[in-house]
Design a protein that fits this description.
Length: 355
């Protein structure tokens, strides 16, 4: 299991902490490696065998991660969290996958899934095991880790609000509403705390818009951002527009939005294709971009490092992977890290940093 391998690695190597970098370096002039679907545990082997027999493409989700705080201890400074709305509680407490395959470990023995509030997992009924089943638990883990590591470099969190209002399935997720996004902001302030957050208001300051602030004044420095978490909403359509509505330049909001360049709310962007030729130009203007080194286990299965290399060369500040450790689910030497003493943090090569 990758969990066991990762734990042994952490015990056998010196702690690698990404807390270096000059104090006066703006946070858009660094480059970090982080994880994708960071909360995800492995699917039970018996259940996964049934899934694969039903749909051969299930191999795309055959991966897992070590606990969130272990990833932070390794030096990863980006994590990705998926949340599902559960305003009444209990909506996802009894996944059907538990009935499909026998002899699985218990699910939610503490009954956390019965409580109202956002839940954290990958797929309803199938890929439901998580290192932080509730968003409250996730944020509490972040806060406790941050308090234990004062002065850590900023941690970027990509947050995806999962729903599907067009689905006709009986087990469709709860559809996000403006009130739920307000509650999301409240959760971040309540369980993580303002002192641990770098928000759009902090970056905009007295500038007319958020975008004008990052394109002219620039981003805060590492010194100003240490000890902070920076959240980015991963959506380009309905949910993004809902989150921005009534909050010009994201005034009063906690998350940054994946807004279109040229709009008042634009500051952080998601460009999943690391080979997209427009990425370097956007970064040179002042935007922070998250991209991916691999997806759907494809690059790991073929040992294809070309997307990671393209991401590095593009200057994208945030590069995500499922393979900061080698897979134990299939044979592969694929693993993602920077050359040098710090494997997951460096000065950005697009601004003269090391390559």
């Amino acid at each position: 299991m990758k969990i066991l391998f990762g734990t042994l690695l952490l015990l056998s190597l010196p702690l690698m902490r990404a807390d270096n970098g000059a104090d006066n370096t703006p946070i858009n002039k660094i480059q970090i490696i982080g994880s994708h679907n960071s909360y995800k545990k492995a699917i039970d082997p018996g259940l996964f065998k049934l899934m694969l027999a039903k749909d051969l493409k299930s191999y795309k989700i055959d991966y897992e991660h070590i606990p969130l705080t272990d990833q932070l201890d390794m030096g990863l400074r980006n994590l990705e969290i998926d949340i599902y709305g559960d305003t009444k509680g209990g909506k996802y407490a009894h996944p059907k996958g538990m009935d499909y395959a026998p002899n699985q470990p218990p699910f939610d023995p503490q009954g956390e899934m019965n409580e109202p509030g956002f839940k954290v997992f990958h797929m309803i009924d199938y890929d439901y095991r998580s290192h932080a089943p509730t968003f409250k638990d996730c944020l509490t883990q972040f806060k406790n880790w941050s308090d234990a590591h004062p002065g850590h470099n900023p941690v970027f969190i990509t947050l995806e609000a999962k729903d599907d209002p067009n689905s006709k399935a009986a087990n469709m997720p709860e559809t996000f509403t403006p009130a739920m996004f307000d509650e999301l902001d409240n959760n971040l302030l309540k369980y993580l705390g303002k002192k641990h957050l770098l928000t759009p208001d902090d970056v905009r300051g007295k500038a007319e818009t958020l975008e004008s602030a990052i394109l002219t004044k620039g981003w805060p420095t590492l010194k100003q951002a240490r000890g902070k978490f920076i959240f980015l909403l991963d959506d380009q359509k309905r949910k993004r527009d809902m989150y921005m509505a009534g909050h010009p330049s994201l005034k009063g909001r906690v998350l940054f939005a994946n807004a279109d360049p040229g709009t008042p709310e634009a500051a952080m962007l998601i460009r999943n294709n690391a080979k997209d030729p427009i990425i370097p130009g956007l970064i040179k203007k002042g935007y922070i971009i998250r991209t991916r080194a691999d997806s759907d286990t494809e690059q790991a299965r073929t040992n294809d490092r070309s997307y990671f290399e393209a991401a590095c060369n593009s200057g994208a500040q945030i590069i995500t992977t499922d393979y900061y450790l080698k897979s134990s689910h299939f044979k592969s030497d694929y693993v993602v890290f920077f050359d040098g003493d710090d494997k997951y943090f460096r000065l950005n090569p697009l601004f003269g940093g090391s390559k």
